[in-house]
Specification:
Strand content: under 5%
Strand order of the largest sheet: 1-4-2-3
Oligomer: single chain
Distance between the termini: 95 Å
Shape: elongated
Helix content: 55-70%
Structural class: mainly alpha
């Protein structure tokens, strides 16, 4: 026999002088249900019991069930078991094996003894879903459905809770993607930062509304902002997920072209292409021009490569001569010291290695770095031989 199917929360406890503490406890449970459903799509009984049974609340299971019973009987919460909603008015059909006529006269302890009898296995609580009553009127639901379909596609079932679940799932995806876009945009010269910021402000505003009725109302009241956000999100998603590698190539190319820009401008076609690349990089909404980037880089890069190649060749010769002078000084000292072959090899090998590196270097910066390395090696060797 499935214990869960016999769930019963009993009749509300006949308690006089309900104090503010009791009301606060009820509201804490309602808030937990709203927030948990908002963040996780659904709230289960075991999650709620686990939450309130630890610090700082540290409520007993009996206390938690008492509070749930009050909310259930006041139609503030419902239960879903095996896909079927359990309402206060039909709870008797789910309460088997008990003389219901005696329930109104039972004391609180006896009521919850019955509850525990029918929920005797806490492991089964993970299958009891807690939900909020459907309060939104049909006109608002239809209006919400129309807006949802416009933004995210057909939602299917039209009900308060299903709409909220569907909406929150998509808004969370928006938020997660926008946060990722923002992280990338914050690291360099990337477009869409203003649209990303506005989209995050809107999604966070909506997701911070936890009550289902208030959430749907807020969603409807932000229709214009949502339409704008949807339009820009599609553009941003395409850029940051599919085309950002082109943008990275643009940034890298302009960095490489920058040192030689005065020389590059001597060619009118190259100058024109270079100016267009700079214009695209500076444009806050460059999306329609991104496909031009490869062709523009292809115009500038060969000319820049030729310039760099000549610069590298020009820089290699004096660097090699400097290292050869260092080698000559070390050889002279080795001869004065009448050093053996092992000492000679150990002293000369580092500079000879750096000389080879300079001859195969592919950038001026590499040549400068290798030359610094050679000077350090020379000074160490001279100190050793002194």
């Amino acid at each position: 026999m499935n214990v869960i199917k016999n769930i019963n929360m009993g009749y509300p406890q006949q308690t006089f002088d309900f104090d503010q503490s009791h009301t606060r406890d009820l509201n804490k449970i309602l808030l937990f249900v709203d927030v948990w459903i908002a963040d996780n799509d659904r709230a289960m009984l075991d999650q709620l019991v686990n939450h309130f049974s630890i610090q700082p609340d540290k409520w007993s299971e009996t206390c938690i069930l008492e509070l749930l019973n009050s909310l259930f009987q006041d139609d503030k919460i419902h239960f879903i078991i095996d896909g079927k909603k359990i309402l206060p008015e039909n709870v008797k059909t789910h309460f088997s094996g008990t003389d219901l006529s005696k329930l109104p006269f039972l004391q609180a302890r006896e009521i919850f003894s019955v509850v525990r009898t029918h929920l005797s296995d806490p492991a089964q609580w993970q299958y009891v879903e807690i939900t909020k009553p459907e309060k939104v009127e049909e006109p608002e639901l239809l209006r919400t459905q129309h807006l949802v379909k416009k933004l995210f596609g057909d939602v299917g079932e039209v009900s308060q809770n299903s709409l909220c679940r569907y909406l929150r799932r998509h808004l969370r995806m928006w938020k997660n993607d926008l946060e990722m876009f923002q992280k990338v945009a914050g690291e360099g010269q990337y477009p869409g930062t203003n649209e990303i910021r506005k989209g995050l402000t809107l999604t966070r505003k909506l997701l911070n509304v936890h009550d289902p009725c208030e959430f749907i109302e807020t969603f409807i009241n932000n229709e214009d902002q949502l339409s704008d956000a949807c339009y820009y999100f599609a553009i941003l998603e395409n850029f940051y997920k599919n085309r950002i590698y082109i943008w990275d190539a643009l940034i890298k190319a302009l960095e490489n072209f920058k040192p030689n820009r005065p020389v590059l401008k001597e060619d009118p076609d190259v100058e024109k292409a270079l100016e267009k690349l700079c214009k695209i990089l500076a444009d806050p909404q460059p999306y329609s021009m991104i496909e031009e980037i490869w062709d523009l880089i292809a115009i500038v890069k060969p000319v820049n490569d030729l310039i760099v190649e000549k610069q590298i060749a020009y820089a290699k010769s004096p660097a090699v001569k400097k290292i050869e002078k260092m080698i000559d000084k070390i050889v002279k000292m080795l001869e004065e010291k009448k050093a053996n072959s092992n000492t000679r090899n150990k002293s000369l090998f580092p500079l000879q290695t750096v000389k080879k590196k300079i001859n195969t270097a592919l950038s001026i910066q590499s040549i400068a770095d290798y030359l610094d390395e050679a000077i350090a090696q020379f000074e160490d060797t001279m100190d050793t031989l002194a």
